[in-house]
Amino acid sequence: MEMESPRSPEAEIGRRLEDLWEETEPQLTPSEKLNSCFGDVPVSSFPPAPPSQVIEIPSDSSLADAVETLSKRMILSAPVRNVDAPEDASWIDRYLGIVEFAGIAMWLLHQSEVAAHGTAVSAPGLSISGLAAKLGSFKFRRSASGINDRAGSEAAATSANSGTEAAASVSGSFFQSLISSDFYKNTKVGDISGSFRWAPFLALQTSDSFLTMLLLLSKYRMKSLPVVDLGEGKIENIITQSAVVHMLAECVGLPWFESWGTKKLSELGLPIMKPYRIIKVKEDEPVLRAFQLMQEKGIGGLPVVDGSGKKAIGNISVRDVQYLLTAPEIYKDYRSITAKDFLTAVRKYLHNHREPSAILQEVISCKRDETIKDIILRLDSAKIHRIYVVDEDDGVEGVITLRDIISKLVHEPRHYFGDFFDGVVPLPENSRV
């Protein structure tokens, strides 16, 4: 009988993995077999991202233009192309780094703070004294986390209530003044390249394996991975967390997947993070505190909890920082923007504009006795990368991210990466936002 054709390119990958699974040496453990299978599939097999997601932002674009581009394309970040690089430049010289919504917002906030104290370094040819006068000053504690924190597990993060200085609340008019300032409109993306996390960024080659891709997204905490063509010196594809979740969801039903996916969370040691170490914000805390914590801890989102500190009333992701810069008018009547105010205002704005967004959904949760397959299908359906584990009273007692899931799927062999990180290095700590 002729085999039913795959449902999608991702399902075709699943079939390829299934063939490898059947051919793999039987004496290997299931974990070793999975590593071997993913290690034998090249990244060139991964389905191409939609053209709208594979974009580059010229280094001479303004911050305002960059924010508009990211918002319209509904993407979180994009590589910055150096407009001064020669046509035959290698990819390392062609790109300056990755610019993100959160990076732009945090950089602007930090600049307004230090400008008020007379210590800011302006972008070439620009002055931020007017911006500081217009916005005033507030305390904003910069991240002290380093590469070892990013390479570690989210379980190593400290509690949101560990005594760190909270971000000051900011009035709704603050962001209206910010995006109307000449500094915001005239500063070029290239001018803030010193704040990019990597120089220029971690990238995959088409010959790299799925195992490399999965390890970078999990253990090494990458949010997305550009795939570069060394011959052309250009980005050929961008692999996102959402795309990987969808790939795994399309593999449901295949024997290799079922051997792993039918295990309960508790069998796999999930959630990894202990309840007292969950990073969260209370509904009455300033929303800037949420984004500050995400930036400090290298996480993509966190729950907003009620006054008891236990039940989640919503989720804020790093992607949601865009609403501070693209729709500041929705906060104009707020004397300060708390996490709850932020959720309320953004949900109303999205509802009125009929725009789909994960922030409109109820908190996506699960119980410890569910299977990893259940979790993957739910993440794919909701287009999110994290799910909260709740107890019988709906209190948050854990969080499971795509990184956690991948960590239970593959492991890093000893000395696996070798000199992989040579040539793309983290910038000095005091350069990051």
TrEMBL record:
<keyword id="KW-0129">CBS domain</keyword>
<feature type="domain" description="CBS">
    <location>
        <begin position="359"/>
        <end position="417"/>
    </location>
</feature>
<dbReference type="InterPro" id="IPR050511">
    <property type="entry name" value="AMPK_gamma/SDS23_families"/>
</dbReference>
<keyword id="KW-0677">Repeat</keyword>
<keyword id="KW-0808">Transferase</keyword>
<dbReference type="InterPro" id="IPR000644">
    <property type="entry name" value="CBS_dom"/>
</dbReference>
<dbReference type="Pfam" id="PF00571">
    <property type="entry name" value="CBS"/>
</dbReference>
<keyword id="KW-0418">Kinase</keyword>
<feature type="domain" description="CBS">
    <location>
        <begin position="273"/>
        <end position="332"/>
    </location>
</feature>
<protein>
    <submittedName>
        <fullName>SNF1-related protein kinase regulatory subunit gamma-1</fullName>
    </submittedName>
</protein>
<dbReference type="InterPro" id="IPR046342">
    <property type="entry name" value="CBS_dom_sf"/>
</dbReference>
<dbReference type="GO" id="GO:0016301">
    <property type="term" value="F:kinase activity"/>
</dbReference>
